[in-house]
Amino acid sequence: MIDSKNIIENLEKRLMSFGQEQKTQNVGVVEKITDGVVIASGLSKAIMGEKVQFSDGSSGLILNLDEDTVSIILLSGGENLREGDTVKTTGQLLSIGASEELLGRVIDPLGNPLDGKPKIKKAKLMPLERIAPGVVNREPVNAPLKTGIKAIDSMIPIGRGQRELIIGDRGLGKTAIVIDTIINQRPNSNNKKLKPVVCIYVAIGQKQSTIAQVIDKLKQENAFSYTIVVVASSSYPASLQYLAPFSGVSIAEYFMEKGQDVLIAYDDLTKHAWAYRQLSLVLRRPAGREAYPGDIFYLHSRLLERAVKLNKTKGGGSITALPIIETQADDISAYIPTNVISITDGQIYLKGDLFYLGVRPAIDAGNSVSRVGSSAQTAAIKSFSGKIRIELAQYKSLEAFAQFGSELDAATSAQLERGKRILEVLKQPQYQPLPEPFEILSIWAVTNGYLDDISVSDIQRFEKEYHEYVKTHNQKLLEKLALGEKPTDDILKELKKTIDSFKKMFTSK
Amino acid sequence: MTKKQFRLLAEASYTKNKLDSKKVEKIVKLLPRKDTKMYIKALKNKENKTTVSITLPRQPKKQIEKLFKNMYPNKKIIYNIDSSLIVGVKVIDNDLVYEENLKDTLRQIADFVSQNASQNI
Q: Would the CB atoms of B3 and A68 count as touching at under 8 Å?
């Protein structure tokens, strides 16, 4: 039992924290309503990005401050709004409530639940617009974020705190890469040395059915418990689509400040740019190239700058960003793609030609790059995957000669054969991310020529059965590889011994 | 005509901080119907800027009137009585509204208590 003295003391303490609300209100009048944008006069003390409340209960956000008027984007409601209605400032910048309760939830950009579950009660308010941490608070990317996709983890590795763009035409598997990466963050499939990752999937301007499929897949793969889905589908007003990625990153910052690692995927920033263009045109901001406003670069750079790896004194948390950009007819030199390419720390480029040839994921290794991820790769995968990129590049340059097969010298045709096998090994079914030891097994085998005598059509079967074989016959090898350390001679010998014994079995079938 | 011109026209309609009916009539005669609407709007805005509306629970004492006069020396003060405004005051100065009353303070305490209800005392 708490005694009465304690109760009174606690009450006194609580009373100290009870602050009197600001009583001054700045009131304005609605002058004009057009396409989700309200022009209001008055509001002389309003500030940029301030939340406002209309007399009909709907809310808005100030985006333009003019001499006599302010432009407000509507966040909710607004159907009953009329000219002459009053609007008042709230003194608050737009923010979203973030807490652990959000894990496994589907919310809109304002934090309202969309999954039919109760509203999140206890949450810390995180401002949507915030300056990214400065250089003093950061440290270089030094821990890997495994995607479970062989082609990415070996050639275009992603580090925690990195911003890696996924770019390509529609229907080439951009979202699939993100989903695989989220699935691969399941606590049991990670290296035990690495912290678990909180995943945030921000759907911008997508069809509700597509979003429902993504959520369903995440639930099926037991990946939803550590994932938050922020939805601003195509039926949402442009204002909410514009705010969605900022809501996502604000939630990510909440977890990062607690020292956790966060993965955030923006699917996709092309539609985000469209939404911002629409808003800017309605706000009568001067239009620039492709009618985008002049600050479209700043919009995406300030968003992606918030992806960061904090240093130990700041808790060591990180936000890894995977923005998606949809191109038209493989044109990566368009305005928004070039902008985002220059902002991010690398890009994964998906190519239609490869996709239709059956290379899935259709990653174009030549045009894909990771500028900081290689320093975050584990020593194990680094030492095994060093050769794969070179061999693939050599194969690509020799591929044109492949049609003259009979006239090629032995070394060239061997290189071509090796390339074909590498491409085959890099193929991977959707929703089946691989743990790092299995990735190493496949990559080591193909780059060291152990698959040269296996026919190309049998490679996938060989790989699958080889993984099963190692899982049942040499669990210890997998454990050693999972440590991520540089392979010792003993490990190499063991790898050789295992694949030799498996090959005997495989070829005798 | 631009908004700025209408604002200047509205300002010119005043003589010694008071709206001059002669000036207004002269201006209105010269303006087309559409512009007259804008001129009226500008006059309203100007009037709002020069007027302060004060709502009190009962008729103000002379001391209080003097206090407000000192606070807004160049503005016209209009007093309203609203008995529901218990122990409070509401001042509307153009687009700024200052409000303080017992009802709001009690509501604020109630909100604070309900928000922190789940916390252990």
A: yes
Segments of chain A assigned to CATH 2.40.30.20: 27-92
Give CATH 1.20.150.20 domain extents, chain A: 381-508
Q: Collapse the DSSP code of A493 into the 3-class scheme (helix H, G, I; strand E, B; otherwise coil) and give the result.
A: helix
Rounded Cα gap, residues A176 and A431, in angstroms: 7
CATH 3.40.50.300 maps onto chain A at 97-376
A97-376, superfamily in CATH?
Answer: P-loop containing nucleotide triphosphate hydrolases (3.40.50.300)
Full-model pTM:
0.88
For the stretch A321-348, pLDDT in tens is 999 999 999 999 999 999 999 999 999 9
Please indicate whether residue A371 is annotated as part of the active site: yes
Q: How far is CA B43 from CA A144, B10, B16, B95, in A?
A: 66, 5, 15, 15
* Domain A27-92 fold: Elongation Factor Tu (Ef-tu); domain 3 (2.40.30)
Identify which of B95, B118, B121 has the shortest CB distance to residue A42.
Answer: B95
How confident is the model over A398-455, as pLDDT tens digits? 887 777 656 778 888 889 999 999 999 999 999 999 999 999 999 999 999 999 999 9
Contact A160, A370 (CB under 8 A): no
Long-range contacts from A328-333, C-beta under 8 angstroms, 24+ separation: A328/A169, A329/A169, A330/A168, A330/A169, A332/A167, A332/A367
Ranges of chain B with pLDDT below 50: 118, 120-121
CB contact under 8 A, A23 and B100: yes
* Stretch 6-35 of chain B: residues touching chain A, C-beta under 8 Å: none
